[in-house]
Specification:
The chain has 20 helices and 14 strands. A five-stranded parallel beta sheet has the order 2-1-3-4-5, with helices on both faces. It is elongated and about 80 Å long.
Length: 454
């Protein structure tokens, strides 16, 4: 079977046949299976770029199938097909990471629009080079487009971004997408190695070069021959070593500590920092000529607060990872997920993953509550919300979730809510929710519960 763009999974042979013919008539390559188990067994062979699965199937429901797909192919978009009465289950699927849900009969135009949106979103679905980067954010997809383009060149890349945003993950992805992918990727954190040892770690040393040098050491540059060296937290490299690194980059050769001869090296250098290097240059702690040598191409990883739409995906991915490691399988209550969506994340994805792991370990039951999330975030001291505050939080979360489920289509969201479109627009305005489902910080809904509530 050839590699497919679309993977269909449904135990209804008639619907499976209809959808297959429809998608093939529109130019897609389709692989169709009547069960989740069979689809999983052929996932590697088929290598789809989009999955459409029925919610209710006898051997494995669509949510379980999606969870197991996410463990094998993180970031692969999965849409769920439901019967008309399964809207609560569809909401559960979306919270678990489904990119869309369709009620039967599946609308042709909406399905085509959804598939085109996700197949066009970025290169990461076309191969394994960006494995582990979980996103549906337009910002991240634009970054991945740039990363794949620059990966084909030999240009030095400086990756900026806050701690915990995933700079090394992106560097590894660039290496995998490059012509050097079959050669070593060697990473070192310049802030984690004592200054007196960093030169030896990078460039190697000769036996007897200093106390404790009991044998020759090649160094990371030589160990990465033909591949990529990733210098994390380059902004913390000691000034005395910066000039030596600059010489290595210019001359393409290293001189091990204690050695009189130089050794040629063939490596590509990627670097990263959470610091503002221009400020370090101004204060004299970072060399300007080294900065320009490293910063041929600059890529910036957005913080988690700029890609909040990825939080449900990231949470579902981390829950699946922990379950695969033997942890009890848990899910977040809708109000708990709402707390995660609006929380501050100074530690970015790393902090979110650590919090999910803590919640899984501490939850007394299968469902992780909003109270436990607040406690983990250190905001439990705010006391019990008033009735109006709780109602406001629910209303904003509900409207935001509806808009996300409806893909920004206000008419569809109003229909799901059982309201006419005019009344629904008034509700969005009252509670400060835009048509993309985002909560406006200055919306009319008062966080203290003083605004009139229906």
């Amino acid at each position: 079977m050839s590699k497919a763009q679309i993977l269909l999974v449904d135990d209804d042979p008639k619907l499976l046949r209809v959808l297959t013919l429809r998608l093939e008539s529109e130019g897609y390559t389709v692989a169709a299976f009547p069960s989740g188990e069979e689809a999983l067994g052929r996932l590697s062979e088929v290598a789809p770029r989009f999955v459409l699965a029925d919610l209710r199937m006898p051997d494995m429901d669509g949510v379980e199938l999606m969870s197991r797909i996410q463990m094998r192919r993180p970031g692969l978009p999965v849409a769920i097909v439901t019967a008309q009465g399964d809207i609560p289950e569809a909401i559960r699927a979306t919270q678990a990471g489904a990119v869309e849900f369709f009620t039967k009969p599946v609308p042709r135009d909406k399905l085509r629009e959804c598939i085109e949106r996700y197949l066009d979103q970025g290169p990461k679905q076309s191969g394994d080079w960006a494995a582990g980067i979980i996103t549906r954010s337009p910002l991240m997809h634009a970054l991945l487009d740039d990363s794949q383009r620059v990966a084909r060149s030999e240009a030095a890349v400086l990756i900026g971004g806050a701690s915990g945003a995933g700079k090394e993950l992106l560097a590894r992805a660039i290496h995998r997408a490059s012509p050097r992918a079959d050669k070593p990727f060697i990473a070192i954190n310049c802030a984690a190695v004592p200054a007196e040892l960093l030169e030896s770690e990078l460039f190697g040393h000769k036996r007897g070069a200093f106390t404790g040098a009991h044998g020759d050491h090649p160094g990371l540059f030589r160990a990465a021959e033909g591949g990529t060296v990733f210098l994390d937290e380059i902004g913390d490299m000691p000034p005395s070593l910066q000039v030596k690194l600059l010489r290595v980059l210019q001359e393409r050769e290293v001189r091990p500590v204690g050695e009189t001869r130089t050794v040629p090296v063939n490596v590509r250098v990627l670097s990263a920092t959470h610091r503002i290097l221009e400020s370090r240059i101004a204060e004299g702690s970072f060399r300007e000529d080294l900065y320009y040598r490293l910063n041929v191409v600059n890529l910036r990883l957005p913080p988690l607060e700029e890609r909040r739409e990825d939080i449900p995906l990231l949470v579902a991915h981390r829950l699946a990872q922990l379950a695969a490691q033997g942890a009890v399988r848990r899910v977040y209550a809708p109000e708990a997920l709402e707390v995660l969506l609006v929380a501050s994340w100074p530690g970015n994805v790393r902090q979110l993953f650590n919090l999910v792991e803590q919640n899984v370990a501490l939850a007394p039951g299968r469902v992780i509550s909003a109270a436990l999330v607040r406690q983990s975030l250190g905001i439990q001291g705010q006391g019990l919300m008033t009735f109006d505050q709780a109602r406001l939080q629910f209303a904003r979360g509900y409207l935001s979730q509806l808009m996300e489920l409806a893909g920004g289509n206000t008419t569809r969201a109003a229909r799901l809510a059982g309201r006419n479109r005019t009344d629904f627009y008034k509700l969005l305005s009252r509670y400060g929710v835009d048509t993309n489902g985002r909560l406006a910080s200055n919306g009319n809904g008062d966080e203290d519960g003083d605004s009139p509530l229906p």
